[in-house]
Amino acid sequence: MSKKLVNAIADMKEEEALNIAKKMVEDGSDPTAIVDAAREAMDIVGQRYEKGEYFLPELMLAGEMMAQITEMIKPELAKMPEVKRFGKVLIGTVEGDIHDIGKNIVTFMLDVNGFEVLDLGVDVPPQKFVETIKKFKPQVIALSGFLTLAFDAMKETVGAIEAAGLRDDVQIMVGGGQVNEEISKYAGADAYGKDAMAGVTLAKKWTGAK
Amino acid sequence: MEKQQSPEEKQEALWEGVLAPKGPDGDPLPFQSPEAEKAFKERILRFKDAIQMKKLPDRVPVTIFPSMFPWLNAGMTVEEAMYDYGKCAEAFKKFVKDFDIDVHWGAAAPGPGKFFEIMDYKLYSWPGHGVAPEHVYQCNEGEYMTADEYDALIQDPSGYFSNVYLPRVFGSLDGFAMLPFLPGILEMYGVAFNFIPFGLPPVQNTYKKLFEAGGEALKWAGAVGGADGELATLGYPNILGGFTKAPFDVIGDTLRGTKGVMLDIYRQPDKLLEAMDAITPLMINMGVGASTMTGNPLIFVPLHKGADGFLSDEQFKKFYWPTLEKVLLGLIEGGCVPLPAAEGGYSTRLEVVQDLPKGKTLWMIDLTDMADVKATLGVNACLLGNVPSALLNLGTPQEVEDYVKKVIDEAGTDGGLIVCNGAFFDQAKPENVKAMVDTTKEYGVYK
Ligand code: B12
Asked: pLDDT per residue over B335-375, tens digit each?
């Protein structure tokens, strides 16, 4: 049953996946098995995305399937043990910018690769990053931005983190359409990531994850 | 019966019109000097020759197609540019003159802030309305069309827009939701029933707002149009004739949002395809109509959700390209020169989009490698681009100069190139922008 669920999700068969999951819930399957299957499927989706077989439609549909399945087993979910995560990443699109498609992919890929990701959304002011770092205590900060205005917003965000005395606690990566190595330097970030996979590689390196 | 003009004749007629501009009174535009008149015509012909690829222009044309740069560079905030129409126009005139570009694209980018207020535009937040004064306006993407509304859109796109979509994105158009079904107005018997909504307060309020908004739009258009007119008398033509969009982006940007359209590819692919077919002729008419009205053949088509990374090759070929191709061909048929902007990377799409009729389109190139584009799409199409935003922002004039020379060497030695920025930038070092223009003028001369 759970192998079938893995395949149905990974192969983008939404109806089938939901039916199998529903049946498993009704049959009283261990919710852990359902969640594990869904996670395994997300891994496969992530790999296919990396290989250039999957694109936005698949990532979005996979996200939708995951959300619907999680909804089905919600009552059971609270009782389940937390999965072990490699580390924490705080992500957001910087102030003034609302492009979030690239950022959402990075979030998705970090998540399927075992990171706990907190997404602050778009148009995030520097101070919001600072406050959240204090509470969430991430090792990695991921700043996304597409507009030329975002270059300065990235710099200001890094500056605000520095001013709050938090700079040494975190590694900062930047990315998004027009962003490159130069802009990373300009902003005072630690690295530039060309795509979501580069972001995962950086996060793994910085947190010592394998 | 009137003789049907061929697409070529239609386009030539439009270029003739561009070359002989008229003032607001309909008389020939008075140029400020014979030199200005000469420069005006030379600039247009340089542009036209580059696009048509029949003969070499005297040199590679150069232009700047920015987002908010002209206003930020003038020390204004975006808010000022949106609310002070006079200042907006002044700053734009100064920008065109200072950078001395061959053609410009008009001062419409900031748009009229007051108008958006009157209309209670919900699709965007803008400076003073949820956005800081120095930031650009922000799109509030969402599912403004729900997943189950495809049939309504397909059966009657205009009706769907007026009665469903527009009231959702413009608070002041809520009365439109009550508008009668216009094709139902057929005969005398009962005809008056159709007009009852116009007697009701919500509809009347909507019309009151519309009068006000129309007046505001006119005021703004007067200012930005005035800038166009004055620049023309100085020899700087506005080359933009209008805009339209790829049917996939109409649905993906405007109606269903990114997530909506991406899910529809799996959940209701046939409806999505059908809806795009229904929209296609409208998008052609939109472009051709605009070009007839402005008398200018260039129709801008910003391409969004078909870029590298969005869709697989198969999905691009099935969902994005067929209706976009129809729109481009329809525009050409109508005498227009489509200007698709291949925003972001387009490397994986070049092979699919390359077979367009020669000398009929102008492609703005952003992050795609120019040599690759020249070897494929550039065989038949003139290219506009592609000095990167990051370089204009953080580079040095020397680096910009090197980049421009490289672009000209790679893509411009035999015509079919117009040097321009690759993306619609807000901020840049003015000396870098200037270096882009000056290098093209010196290095781009055809001997
Ligand atoms: C879709 C889009 C929009 C949508 C946004 C929808 C949304 N929800 O995000 C809409 C239509 C609303 C929009 C609006 C605007 N846009 Co826009 N938009 C785009 C477009 C077409 C695609 C961007 C995108 O989503 N790409 C998809 C992702 C998946 O691709 P990607 O960038 O390769 O992402 C990867 C990497 O960048 C990386 N990555 C991303 N973030 C991060 C972060 C980290 C830490 C790491 C490691 C990696 C990483 O991983 C991703 C996955 O591998 C681009 C052009 C383009 N094709 O790039 C213009 C573009 C970004 N927009 C632009 C502009 C100017 C605007 C507007 C100002 C236009 C206007 N006048 O209305 C507004 C501004 C809104 C605002 N204030 O932010 C310009 C920016 C110009 C510049 N920088 O010089 C661009 C480049 C278009 C252009 N060629 O000029 N836009």
From this structure: 999 999 999 999 999 999 999 999 999 999 999 999 999 99
Answer yes or no: are the C-beta atoms of B322 and B279 closer than 8 Å: no
According to DSSP, residue A99 is labeled -
Q: Does the bond joining B386 to the residue before it have cis omega, within 30 degrees of 0?
A: yes
- Residues forming beta bridges with residue B118, ordered by sequence position: none
Residues of A in contact with B266 (CB under 8 A): 12, 14, 57, 61
Number of domains in chain B: 1
Residue nearest to atom 85 of ligand 1 (CA): B423
Q: Which residues pair with B242 in a beta bridge?
A: B299
Is the CB of A183 within 6 Å of ligand 1?
no
Q: What element of type H or E holds B223? A: helix B201-233
The answer to whether B428 and B95 have CB atoms below 8 angstroms apart is: no
Beta carbon of B424 within 6 Å of any ligand 1 atom: yes
| Alpha-carbon distance B258 to nearest alpha carbon in chain A (angstroms) | 8
Q: How far apart are CA B400 and CA B438, in angstroms?
A: 10
Within a domain: residue B142? Answer: no
Residue B274 lies in a domain: yes
A145 pocket-lining for ligand 1 (C-beta < 6 Å): no
Using DSSP's 3-state secondary structure scheme, residue B386 falls into strand
Contact B135 A95 (CB under 8 A): yes
Q: Which amino acid is at B52?
A: Q
Residue B177 near chain A (CB below 8 Å) = no
Would you say B220 and B296 are in contact if contact means Cβ atoms under 8 Å apart?
no
Domain with B336 in it: 7-110+234-443
Query: What's the CA-to-centroid distance between B165 and ligand 1, angstroms?
Result: 24
Q: Ligand 1 pocket test: pick from B136, B255, B301 the residue with the most ligand atoms within 8 Å of its Cβ.
A: B136
Rounded Cα gap, residues B238 and B247, in angstroms: 26
Q: Please name the residue whose Cα sits nearest to atom 84 of ligand 1.
A: B425
Judge whether B319 and B279 are in contact, CB under 8 Å. no
- pTM for the model stands at 0.93
Question: How does pLDDT run across A64-121, given as a tens digit for each residue?
Answer: 998 899 888 877 776 666 667 889 999 999 999 999 999 999 998 998 888 999 999 9
Hey, what are B288's tokens?
């051709």
CB contact under 8 Å between B258 and A101, yes or no, is yes
Tell me if chain A has a CB within 8 Å of the CB of B293.
no
Question: Does residue A90 have its Cβ closer than 6 Å to ligand 1?
Answer: no
CATH number at residue B296: 3.20.20.210
pLDDT tens by residue, B156-200: 999 999 999 999 999 999 999 999 998 889 999 989 999 999 999
Between chain A and chain B, the number of residue pairs with CB atoms below 8 A apart is 82
Please report which helix (H) or strand (E) contains residue B125, including its range: strand B124-127
What ipTM was assigned to the predicted interfaces of this complex? 0.91
Domains of chain A: 2-78 (1.10.1240.10), 88-207 (3.40.50.280)
B7, pLDDT greater than 60: yes
pLDDT in tens, A127-177: 999 999 999 999 999 999 999 999 999 999 999 999 999 999 999 999 998
B67 CB under 6 A from ligand 1? yes
